[in-house]
Amino acid sequence: MHQFFKVILMQRVALYLLGMFLYPVAAMAQQDTVTYLKDRLLQNIEVIGQRQQQRLSSAAPLQQLSYKDFKIQGITDLSDALHRLPGITLRDYGGAGGMKTVSVRGFGAQHTSVIYDGIALSDCQSGQIDLARYSLDNVESVSLVVGDQDEIFIPAREVSTAATLTIRTFQKPNDDLKPHLTAQMRVGSFGYTNPFFRFSKNLSNNFGIQAMGEYIYADNDYPFKLQNVKVVTKERRNNSRMNSGHGELSFAWTPTATSQLDGKVYYYDNDRQLPGLVHYYTNNSKETERDRNAFGQLAFKTSNRNNLWFSAKSKFNWASSSYRDGSYPDGVKDQDYWQREWYATASLLYRPIESLSLNYSGDYTFNNLNSSEPGDVHPYRHSILQSLTAKYQQDRFKMIVRGLYTISLNDAKIGTGAHNVRRLSPSISLSYQISEQPSLHLRASYKNIFRMPNFTELYFRHYGSTDLSPENTDQFNLGLTWQKSYSTKGKLTLTWDGYWNHIKDKIVAVPYNMFMWTNINVGKVRVLGTDVTLSIEQEVGRKQALRIDGNYTFQSVSNRTNPEASTYGLQIAYTPEHTGALSVSYENPWVNVSAHGTGVSKRWATNQHYDGTNIDGYLEFGLTAYRTFTIKNQKLELRGDIKNLLNKQYEIVGHYPMPGRSWQLSIMWII
Questions:
Q1: Which of 208, 432, 434, 477 is the most exposed place for a label (fewest CB within 10 A)?
Q2: What pTM was computed for the model?
Q3: What is the CA radius of gyration of the chain?
């Protein structure tokens, strides 16, 4: 209890200090408009020019996709975008409404943090972020960093996982006072309907607002073939309807040329049916789920124009999940969950000399989870994270050293809470530019980090265990990046990374008896892998360009727990050894086209590799065509997509068939 009151005191002090910093900002007078515009434009030019260079010179593996890349490569949604990044394993339960989670380099989805406009998304119940909740039409860029990113002026929470997926939405419009409107309608196979709009306007030279909204409806009743030994029948997916909507309202205020305050309010609501697994002649389900999520966040940053920068962010998040199973009378299996989060962070960056930067970040988070489950203990957690980072960059050499100290205080309103955890996690990243023409960089990195068990693993009835320890990970990376302009109209970019990861105290579920399972720390996992990416850009005529983008990943993710066990050395469930993607795009004044494909080798649905639990590999191909018309300073874009062109039936998750051939058409009007 003494620790609990200490944390509450620290929380109030942090909020008081945050208020002290934000109050003077609100009272600042506006700066000269011309000076502000000049500084703003120079900053924008710098950011755009550095995007490609950051990917090549990053001390840790960094992959990026922009809004332009989405169009050129024929990317249709966020999960499709992640298929184009190396080292990623995606779980997809099929259809527009299927849950989509991502894991990186064999670590599991809980080891990947997702940053949405500068602040991490969270789910204390499962530890996994469902990426199907976020619209690609509102995303400006997606980037993936494995290890620690070069940017050190960030919250401690952003460095607390093995990998970081950063999603940035469209911010303010250009520096004019005209309204900007984007309206889009997309329709497709199996009843898919998706209207979308985004409106943004500068109310003054230093204050802008933006609103967006979308609605998605889909029947998802796609056909598939079901095989039982030699008998093959044609079926249709049922109980798979999706009915969801989400909206965002945000603002950006720059009271001075060196200060900015951003805010966002987000709401998501999805009332969907849950298709059951397909096994022999079982394709019936009466399960439904309603997921709702709302959050509000603020972010402030300022500098003294010389060598000192300060940033503060805060967020409140609320989420609920209501599960219903009509197969059971009297709601025997119905479940309701509610979770809340309060989050605050502050960062201070100091640059004593040009080549050295120092950053301190402190974060506080409170999470709690309540449910309708019998015996629910109402767990909660206080988390305090502090990171100290030094970055040295001189000529061609760059080094980043970081220490993260984590305090996790766990308790429950009823019964006994999980163990408290205190741990220091070090990391180091190095980069050296071997040559300028062609551009050749060598990079190496090491990171030690751990994952706290989520509330399901700790407290779920007949499943959780409060005795669990965190999963501890070590990751090593060695890589090369190379770029060469082989003519005035052509450029070739290659990256290669080899890595070795080790996970100990891995959390696995084992049977306690015929009816009960429990989580224990018994697992060790070794990951050996390599990622390769290729990009070729070639002008082939006036206003014509050919672009090829590809990636390949090999991952050996093996169980190393007990040499005497039958599972020793076997590939971990749902982790393919080989994955890859390729797109060929042709831009021209008439109709831009893109042919693209992804491939995944076979996987196993169980760690034991039982007979009949293997999942076949697959190759999926698609085509995209689009054209943009300019009409009196307005733009009209028409686009068509064909997915799974060869109508290949495959599964990503066992017994959850993915859709076959499908189409989408969209029309977008930009004012």
A1: 434
A2: 0.88
A3: 25
